[in-house]
Design goal:
Blueprint lengths: L4 H24 L17 H8 L5 H11 L19 H13 L22
Helix pairs in contact: 1-4, 3-4
C-alpha cells in the first residue's frame, strides 16, 4: 500500500515531534543557557552527558535528581544549580530521556579525572 505524500509527511512530522518537543523544553527551561548539544558551554554538552550515563543502570533517576537538586564537582568546579523551582519531575524525566537519546551508545566517552578543586569521589 502506498501512502499519499501528504500522509507520509504528517507521519514523519509526528514521529520526529518528541525529540523536537524535548529540545524545545530544554530551551524553554533555560537548560541551553549552560548546555548545548555538541560542545561544552558552562556545563557539559548534552551528548557528553548521554555518553557518560548511557550504560549506567538507574541513570534516568540519577540524572533527574541532578536536574532537580543540582550537583557540584561532577564535570568541573562550576556547580549546577537546582532547578526544582521551575522544572517539575515530569519535565525533568522528559529532559533526561531526551538527553540520553542524543548518544544512546555512549560513544566518545572517557572517564575524566577529578576536576581541579574537587575532592576525589570514593569508588
Amino acid at each position: 500500500m502506498k501512502l499519499p505524500a501528504a500522509a507520509l509527511a504528517v507521519a514523519c512530522t509526528l514521529s520526529a515531534a518528541p525529540a523536537l518537543a524535548d529540545e524545545a523544553l530544554a530551551k524553554a527551561k533555560n537548560c541551553t543557557g549552560c548546555h548545548v548539544l555538541e560542545q561544552k558551554r558552562v556545563g557539559p554538552a548534552f551528548k557528553d552527558i548521554a555518553a557518560r550515563y548511557a550504560k549506567q543502570p538507574g541513570a534516568v533517576d540519577k540524572l533527574i535528581g541532578k536536574v532537580l537538586n543540582g550537583s557540584v564537582c561532577e564535570w568541573s568546579v562550576v556547580p549546577m544549580p537546582p532547578n526544582k523551582y521551575h522544572v517539575n519531575e515530569s519535565e525533568a524525566r522528559e529532559l533526561v530521556q531526551w538527553i540520553l537519546s542524543t548518544n544512546p551508545e555512549g560513544t566518545g566517552w572517557a572517564k575524566p579525572s577529578t576536576p581541579v578543586g574537587c575532592a576525589p569521589k570514593a569508588g
